Amino acid sequence: MTEQQTTLTPRQAARYVGISEAALRLWRSRGEGPRFFRAGEKLIRYRKSDLDNWIEARLSAPTVCPLHSFFPRFLPPAGSRQFEVELVALRAIILRLLMLMVTKIAVGMLPIVRRVMRISWLHSGG
Asked: Model pTM?
């Protein structure tokens, strides 16, 4: 490849990286973002290799299933059919617990609601 083919304009670089040209401009003004060079007073260029290195430096590590970090010995391998079945069962249990909590809160609020209703009824003259 020639030097001409390995350098990109800011518009091409933005497309290559998958961000807006405005973001590149902002990062340049702050001294952030991928490395660039000035080919003239106002002529900005990016090398593909610098863009690739910048992308590579920002790759994240693979995520781990949060359930496996808490219960590593008790769960089947993530992605297995058994794991999916147990995950559905766990979601059902959590949903049921939440419903019970909401019911308890609602039942506990009934006396307060009745008292407020009675007071507002007395004040309204009804």
From this structure: 0.47
